[in-house]
Write a structure and sequence with these properties.
Blueprint: H1 3-13, E1 24-32, E2 35-37, E3 49-51, H2 53-58, E4 61-67, E5 73-84, E6 93-97, E7 104-110, H3 124-130, E8 166-176, E9 180-189, E10 208-213, E11 223-235, H4 244-266
């Protein structure tokens, strides 16, 4: 896209409704132990995923992944999130704060559909597919790219400080017994991440990924989407086992019932 076309596109965007400036979840993908699904429909999520009302309606809220394989082993999952934080969607940069827990991986990179000359070979989408997220923020950005003319986007040299179309990846590897399940809770919000309660370290990390669209010629203020996650390994739900006293009551009831049946049959 040359500078003239970029300017025309930018002027056209000034006529868009205000709603287009709100964050939009453009793409969502899941790698569930090697089974990869892209373009997930928020109103028809697979059985391993469930979203709260906010997430289903807006793409912002809580998304829960549950893995209950029923067999001991080591498993993994990873997700891809591509938000268009504001218009134009290619003027974003990524941030990372905090520390992941053991087994947690992450990546910030250009979206698979970015077509950005400054980031010609983004690896995030493939790394979600391959469970090989590289724990790197590839779009630290903060050089304005409102008209898609920063660095190589305008025909110059590649400049990795340019803003771009940012996407997130985050995943977990974990070990389960046959009677355990993994529950991973993703939280996406326009509010900064809340650090988990330090008395429950098993529930998650302090890792927080941010996708920020700064104030520019199309936006008076900056806006961000933040991603964090927690993981909990817990027992699977199973029918309660009666206590010894309960077994005696069950057995006695069965014997009484059997005796009554014999008497009834014998009276015929």
């Amino acid at each position: 896209m040359n500078k003239t076309i970029a300017v025309l596109v930018g002027l056209w965007m000034l006529t868009l409704p205000a709603a287009f400036g709100s964050p939009v979840l453009f793409d969502l993908a899941l790698n569930n132990n090697g089974t990869f699904t892209d373009g997930l429909n928020l109103s028809a999520l697979p059985g391993s995923l469930s979203g709260d009302a906010g997430f289903v309606s807006t793409g912002l809220g809580t998304l829960t992944f549950t893995d209950n394989p029923g067999a001991a082993g080591t498993y993994f999952m990873a997700m891809y999130f591509d938000y268009d934080v504001a218009v134009p969607f290619w003027n974003e940069y990524g941030t990372q704060t905090g520390t992941p827990v053991a087994g947690q991986t992450w990546q910030i990179d250009a979206a698979v559909v970015a077509n950005d000359a400054n980031f010609p070979s983004p690896t995030l989408f493939a790394n979600v597919q391959n469970n090989s997220l590289d724990d790197t923020n590839h779009i630290p950005g903060q050089t304005d790219n409102s008209f898609f003319n920063c660095g190589a986007d305008g025909g110059g040299a590649i400049d990795t400080t340019c803003n771009a179309d940012v996407a997130f990846g985050m995943g977990f590897s974990y070990t389960l017994t046959a009677s355990q399940e993994a529950v991973v809770t993703f939280t996406t919000s326009t509010n900064p991440c809340v650090v988990p309660d330090v008395v429950r370290p098993q529930d998650g990390s302090t890792l927080c990924l941010g996708d920020t669209h700064p104030a520019d010629v199309f936006n008076d203020t900056s806006q961000s989407v933040y991603l964090s996650a927690t993981i909990s390994i817990q027992p699977t739900t199973a029918p309660p086992v009666p206590e010894p006293g309960s077994w005696l009551l069950v057995g006695s009831a069965a014997l009484i019932g059997f005796g009554a049946l014999r008497r009834k049959l014998g009276s015929r």
